[in-house]
């Protein structure tokens, strides 16, 4: 059976230097680097590196930094120089200023940290990743001799240049697998063994930090005969936070949407959208279906909010606080299919939220599943202007109609 790539939302965001620090700790070869949060420290770091060439990188989570623009007037969030003395001046035009790239909001993102690193020449770029694959019931290595570019584009245009190795979770990466992948990536002679060693170390890191993906693009070869991980992205399993406290403490939430950050505190998955009908749903699949059916009936969802399984009344209350704080919201649609979720808990949370928050917008509720009759009794006897719906289609129609009547 072919292995298909499974992607997941990355809730923990690490800056480039943080990912490289984790790699260093696992013996993976990266460029020498220092981190600075003020221009004098950046200048000292450049001198301390004593390198032939230095690269100064603004540390933000968005891509496209090299072609970005600062509101200080400086162009580019990545600068190369052979003169360490100019690093302080460059850093002074980065730190404290906003960098706008194709992936940031229009106003850009404030740069609070820069990475000062040794610049190395790359004679050849390859792509390498380890990721969890549901179809293969475990981790898979994916590699290509064509790195430094969008791997999806390579897979589309030259699928024969994509190589995969399924990893036995009990055995780990075998020597023959690591060497075969290194050879497929185009490493030759002593570099083949060196690349295989880096591959095994990357797998050690993958296990050590409970990653769902470790992606290196490019995994490069230098003129001096070194295999170096030049850029990396690490995705983590949220469920492992309890045993990866040091890693999760590194998470940078300053660039995240404040509402998403607040939602995460209550174990709610929230994504803001552009519509005016707020969605309150349990389960990501049901949440997406709810958004689609609202759209089908002529409405526009204001958000994607997944309540999850082990829900408490407090979470319901906090979810309503988030939804009602959005000025675009003109109606709320609650769509709960209770398997794990007890519908009565949802109903109690809804009535409490409606009273304490003095809900001003129409509320349409569809409940089905565990303890649903008790939940419906709670809602009907609450005396609150809650519109009951028979099913999802009925709920979407009523939510759209509630806005149309306003």
UniProtKB/TrEMBL annotation:
Binds 1 Mg(2+) ion per subunit. It catalyses: GTP + succinate + CoA = succinyl-CoA + GDP + phosphate. The record marks 53, 121 as: Important for substrate specificity. Residues 13-220 form the ATP-grasp fold succinyl-CoA synthetase-type domain. It is found in: Mitochondrion. It is an enzyme of class 6 (ligase). GO terms for cellular component: mitochondrion; succinate-CoA ligase complex. InterPro entries: ATP-grasp_succ-CoA_synth-type, ATP_grasp_subdomain_1, Succ-CoA_synthase_bsu_CS, SUCC_ACL_C, Succ_CoA_betaG_euk, Succ_CoA_ligase-like_bsu, Succinyl-CoA_synth-like. Its EC number is 6.2.1.4. Keywords: GTP-binding, Ligase, Magnesium, Metal-binding, Mitochondrion, Nucleotide-binding, Tricarboxylic acid cycle. Mg(2+) binds at residues 217, 231. It comes from the Eukaryota. GO terms for molecular function: ATP binding; GTP binding; magnesium ion binding; succinate-CoA ligase (ADP-forming) activity; succinate-CoA ligase (GDP-forming) activity. The keyword Cytoplasm does not apply. Belongs to the succinate/malate CoA ligase beta subunit family. GTP-specific subunit beta subfamily. HAMAP family: Succ_CoA_beta, Succ_CoA_betaG_euk. GTP-specific succinyl-CoA synthetase functions in the citric acid cycle (TCA), coupling the hydrolysis of succinyl-CoA to the synthesis of GTP and thus represents the only step of substrate-level phosphorylation in the TCA. The beta subunit provides nucleotide specificity of the enzyme and binds the substrate succinate, while the binding sites for coenzyme A and phosphate are found in the alpha subunit. This is Succinate--CoA ligase [GDP-forming] subunit beta, mitochondrial. The gene is SUCLG2.
């Amino acid at each position: 059976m072919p292995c298909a790539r499974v992607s997941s939302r990355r809730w923990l965001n690490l800056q480039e230097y943080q990912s490289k620090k984790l790699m260093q700790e696992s013996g993976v070869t990266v460029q020498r680097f220092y981190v600075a949060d003020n221009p004098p420290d950046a200048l000292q770091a450049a001198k301390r590196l004593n390198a032939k060439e230095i690269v100064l990188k603004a540390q933000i989570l968005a891509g496209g930094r090299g072609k970005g623009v600062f509101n200080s007037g400086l162009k580019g969030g990545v600068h190369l120089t052979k003169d360490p003395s100019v690093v302080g001046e460059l850093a002074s035009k980065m730190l404290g200023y906003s960098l706008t790239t194709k992936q940031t909001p229009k106003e850009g993102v404030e740069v609070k940290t820069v990475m000062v690193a040794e610049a190395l020449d790359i004679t050849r770029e390859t792509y390498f990743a380890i990721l969890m694959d549901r179809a293969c019931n475990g981790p898979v290595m994916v590699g290509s001799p064509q790195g430094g570019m969008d791997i999806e584009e390579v897979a589309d245009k030259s699928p024969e240049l994509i190589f995969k190795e399924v990893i036995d979770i009990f055995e780990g990466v075998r020597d023959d697998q690591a060497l075969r992948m290194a050879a497929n990536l185009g490493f030759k002679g002593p570099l083949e063994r060196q690349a295989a060693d880096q591959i095994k170390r990357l797998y050690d890191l993958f296990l050590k930090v409970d990653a769902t993906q470790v992606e290196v693009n490019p995994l490069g070869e230098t003129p001096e005969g070194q295999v170096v991980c030049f850029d990396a992205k690490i995705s983590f399993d949220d469920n492992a936070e309890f045993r990866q406290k040091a890693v999760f403490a590194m998470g940078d939430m300053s660039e995240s949407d404040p509402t998403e950050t607040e939602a995460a505190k209550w174990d709610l998955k929230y994504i803001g959208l552009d519509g005016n009908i707020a969605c309150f749903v349990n389960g990501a699949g049901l949440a997406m279906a709810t958004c689609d059916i609202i759209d089908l009936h002529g409405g526009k969802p204001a958000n994607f909010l997944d309540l999850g399984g082990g829900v408490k009344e407090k979470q319901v209350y906090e979810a309503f606080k988030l939804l009602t704080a959005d000025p675009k919201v003109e109606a709320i649609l609650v769509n709960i299919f209770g398997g794990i979720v007890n519908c009565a808990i949802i109903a109690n949370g809804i009535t409490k939220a409606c009273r304490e928050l003095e809900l001003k917008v129409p509320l349409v509720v569809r409940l089905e599943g565990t303890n649903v009759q008790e939940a419906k009794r709670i809602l009907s006897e609450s005396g609150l202007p809650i519109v009951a719906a028979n099913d999802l289609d009925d709920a979407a129609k009523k939510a759209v109609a509630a806005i149309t009547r306003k």
